[in-house]
Amino acid sequence: SITSTLISLLCLSAPGGVSLIVPQPNINTTVAQNILLSVEYSCRGVATIEWKHVSSWGTTKIVEWKSGNYVNISSMYKDRVTTFENGSIQLLNMGMRDAGYYFITVTEEYGTSTYGTIIVNVYEIIYEDLHFVAVLFAFLAAVSAILICFMWLCNKSLHLFQKKTPHKLTASTTEEIELETIEC
């Protein structure tokens, strides 16, 4: 773009100048997604790039590298970060703890530094929770239907059993029951 070309020309013409462009300062993502924290820097000489993550859980240094030389990745991010020559990094498998501010510092060999910030919002996938509720509801409805059918069968069996066995009281049994109730 014209802006990045103009900044690059200013940077190269000034001794010890460094520039940094952050095209997307705010990123929204969901859990388990991969994101690219995209930046573009330019400077005269060799630059050192450092990324930090700041959130309510604290500040963590993610990675630091010198262009064309070493790359020092934090143990917490060892298998989750990829660095690029333009200063960008890719983070794999985002989690809720990855939400927060990502700060990049680009320092050129003459000591001039520039800073950039990217805000990352991480959201949980809500439809998975709704899917669980729907499956639970279907399971409970099926169990209820089975129990209702079982109760209906028991009721029918009881009626059939009562029809097959006559329960006629004899005269002597009726008198005994009447006598017992009077004595009380």
From TrEMBL:
Presence of the UniProt keyword Hydrolase in the record: no
InterPro entries: CD2/SLAM_rcpt, Ig-like_dom_sf, Ig-like_fold
Keywords annotated in UniProt: Glycoprotein, Membrane, Signal, Transmembrane, Transmembrane helix
Signal sequence interval, chain numbering: 1-20
Coiled coil feature spans: none
GO cellular component, as recorded: axon; dendrite; plasma membrane
UniProt main location, coarse: membrane
GO biological process assignments: filopodium assembly; positive regulation of excitatory synapse assembly
Transmembrane segments: 130-154
Top-level taxon in the UniProt lineage: Eukaryota
Compartments it resides in: Membrane
Entry-linked PANTHER family: SIGNALING LYMPHOCYTIC ACTIVATION MOLECULE (PTHR12080), V-SET AND TRANSMEMBRANE DOMAIN-CONTAINING PROTEIN 5 (PTHR12080:SF93)
Name of protein: V-set and transmembrane domain-containing protein 5
